[in-house]
Input
Amino acid sequence: MQLDEEVSLGQFVKQIAALLQQRKVQLPFKNQRPWHLLFYELKSLPVAKGKPKFLDDLRFDWDSPYPKSQELSEFLNALHFTASVSARNPRFDIINVSPEVADRWAKTAAYDDPALRKFLDDAITLAEKEFAAAEG
Amino acid sequence: MSSDDPVVDLLRAYPRLAAIVEQLNEFLIKNHPHIFGSAATHPILRAKRSKVIHDNLWGTVRFTWRELALVDSPIIQRLRDIHQTGLAFHVYPSARHTRFEHSLGAVTIASRIFDAVLHRQRNEIRDMVKALWKIEPDFSILRLKQELRLAALLHDTGHSLYSHTSELVYETLVPLAEASKELSRFVGKQKGAGEVLSFCFALTPAISQLLERTKDKNLIGDRASDDYDGPIDLINVALIIVGRSVHPFLQFLGDIVSSAFDADKLDYLLRDAQNAGLPLRYDLDRYLYDVRIDREVLIDDEGELGKLYEMLPTPAIERKPATSQTRYPYFDTYRLRLSRRAMNVIEQIIICKMMLFSYIYHHPKVRASDGLLERLLRRRVAKWRADGETDEIVLGRFLKMTDAALQFEESGHDEITRDYQYRLQNRLLPREIYSISGPSATHAEGLLIQDFLIDLHDRERRQKLIDDLEQCIGRELLKIDSSLGSSAAEAIARAGVWVDAPKPPKFEDVDEMIMGARSTAAGVPLAQLFPIREWTHAYEHYRYQVRIFAFSRYFDDAAAAAKAAMQQILGISSDQFYNNIRRARR
Output
């Protein structure tokens, strides 16, 4: 059973990506702003059971028109250059997770811990809203 | 309650930074009493108002008396013995340039950027400073230029031996790690240990007193039209070093010294390439032609920037409430930006940076040298701590050390430390036994390699993964050769084995460097105008390598042990895969 203290930023990003793709939500790639806004919102949520500990340690810089986490940027970029995800040519606007990889990542999100599961579900709802706003 | 000292007032809420400033001040006074002490005799003779220095990149350059006072002091002179590119001269014999000439070069470029902006937007800048200080704006502009130049000069004073390699070790010292968190909060962006030290050096009373004493000596020489002898604000100098300034309107000064296309980068890209003998260039004239300041917003939801600006004596500025456009509370600000017409020069700078990472900074032999030095320093720190030295004392050692320490310092009784020192002095470096990258996997093990590579970019998992793999290699090595020691850690230390997973170069900070279409709009993300991600990611996919090193003597045993360890940790069993990633030496 994975506990909220044990979930890493990378695992959480991968799970969100996999679950959103299964719901046919487009994942922005070139424009990373919605990802940063989403994680800043998640960090700002009050401490509650199920909120992963990594969010408390995630630092945001106040040097852009939006809060930006270097750590999150680095991970999103690494997802692509390690070929864990692809981005659609020629403009690279959207991330594409292959069905094989999405299944693999989504399976790891099947947490037994109900509080963590609930937090992930809430994060998915927030992400849907944030990413849809970016599209609009 | 405020004291007479603005630095004390500023750092009252930041005790870790205040403690570092105090330690640095004591360090300067104790080690150089004739220059920084209470009865200092330096400068002995009257100082020249200015001097010219010839730089191999930027030609004949004029420096002011304040800059010369610092250049002629140990705080800058020690940079003559800190190589800019660490141990890269093990691969590129002529890459012997140091932080000293780079610091002078950064002053030159910072100054040219300031002049270029002033030339184009003098009225705007005059209006801006007039709103801040009720004095003749040209006088304020000269002062800001002097503060900017001093910040560029001091920006690398936090370096210790072999530049960034030692920073990886001293950043773990508790006082610096805590001060680094404090400074990141203080200025609202992540700052490392080296920047903490440079920031704190600028705030030491020792430096301000040296500058005061120099001024009192009646300067010799003719005054130039842009000379400035009035008072300066060393708090602004310190803030510019870390990419801020005393007021949001003056944010562009921080951008000139610390941002995506700053004076630091413009100097080191060309200097590193030229000294290594690599034919890489970019068009600085075009950059200077297109650089400008642009009115934008600086958001501040957590209120840390607001707290910083409130503590400063500069006229207050309103933190505006969130709007539907900004989403968060914000300050009006002026940022350093390039126009869309500068696209060619941006491409050149990005390509230069990518190539320098591939050719120099991530060259396998450079990584081998740097990795060996890092392990040598970690062993020394562990020994000093075991001997009862506090982290403050160990920090003092790093402040004293320059590259000469590797040649002349005794290694003590630890046989492994002595071996590493001898090897570094004589270029007996470890060799790559395996080199892993995205394309090295065939379809069968593709997902496992992706998992491994991506976990190395996940902060919470990275160190554990590397430690597990190294420990496993150590255990396998002991099965092959039990004479290597009594523990896995000892076996890998003796065989010079480690897993090297460098940080890839960062490019995302260039995102907002392009001016908006209207002067009040936020910058346009570069990625919308230029295929930066496509280029850099494709490049990193092919060129980013995770390597496993070992000393030549243990090459075959380490290869067998590493293969067994990867089979266990990565779950890849295919012999073909290991043949593909193995570096052939026979």
